[in-house]
Amino acid sequence: MNNTVNPGNQNTESQQADQPLVGVIMGSSSDWDVMKNATDMLEQFGVSYKAQVISAHRMPQDMAEYGAAAYDRGLRAIIAGAGGAAHLPGMMAALTEVPVFGVPVPSRYLRGEDSLLSIVQMPKGIPVATFAIGEAGAANAALHVIAMLAMNNPALREQLRAFREKQTNAARAMTLPPAPQN
């Protein structure tokens, strides 16, 4: 999965048009239904990304190479989703200076609570910004990345402001059904 749109169409020395700004990685293709919420949000804002499976347990050398080269490849954020033991976000954070945003993917037996605890309990010195379990967490991880990138991109910042204003207006327009009369 690859989207190479650059927000605001602004290239920098370290960012070529064909290089993604964000890596979206997951431990298994079964995580895609959750992680697609992150890529959908990045696409909505025109933020370039590349999504792929990088398993901490089944592809440890690939994971190490991905993390070690992340910054030099132009990545400025990594959204890492994992279920079960959920080692991918923490291991990725240990391998790169690129900020890592962890998404706990619901697991079969513990509904993602195991994943959440595994990701959020990182030792001091190796941070992973951790989000809610599931779809909302994936979308919010992307929105957090977008907010971070928007600090140096006025066009992206304006898009984010407009997105939030639209949400506010939608909430203000909500109505409740009339109360039952007794």
TrEMBL record:
Q: InterPro entries under this entry?
A: PurE_ClassI, PurE_dom, PurE_prokaryotes
Give the matching HAMAP family: PurE_classI
Question: Could you tell me the keywords of this UniProt record?
Answer: Isomerase, Lyase, Purine biosynthesis
Function in brief? Catalyzes the conversion of N5-carboxyaminoimidazole ribonucleotide (N5-CAIR) to 4-carboxy-5-aminoimidazole ribonucleotide (CAIR).
Top-level EC class: isomerase
The record's EC number reads 5.4.99.18
Key word Isomerase present in the record? yes
The chemistry this enzyme catalyses reads: 5-carboxyamino-1-(5-phospho-D-ribosyl)imidazole + H(+) = 5-amino-1-(5-phospho-D-ribosyl)imidazole-4-carboxylate
Name the family the entry cites: Belongs to the AIR carboxylase family. Class I subfamily.
Which spans does this entry mark as compositional bias, Polar residues? 1-18
Name the record gives this protein? N5-carboxyaminoimidazole ribonucleotide mutase
Q: What GO molecular function terms would the record report?
A: 5-(carboxyamino)imidazole ribonucleotide mutase activity; lyase activity
**Region (Disordered), start-end ranges:** 1-20
